[in-house]
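Attaching the record inline, Q. Sequence:
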Amino acid sequence: MLLEAAAMVRWEVPPQRRLAFTAVLLTVAASVVVTVLVDFRAGGYVLAGACGLAASFRALLPEQYCLGLLVRSRRIDVTTAVVLALAVGVVAGIVPPGPSGP
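Structure, as predicted:
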């Protein structure tokens, strides 16, 4: 009975509709790795790049390919992601280096 119900409901999203969101998530994960292994500033720049990537995907791709990036209207999503990318990039550049920095 449970198996029949599971077969009736299909929750899987086609892979081509997940590519933009997956790319942004992988870039965010890379920013964590760079922050831990390299430097806070470099990781912040990679995170700002992830926000910029999300903004560009949301601005350029049709809605069917932006699953996970759709929150509000296209204009608000892009504006929010661009402002966040700029803010994270500025903060990453302003933060003074740690004791092992240059």
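The chain has a mean pLDDT of 85. The chain has four helices and no strands.

More tomorrow.
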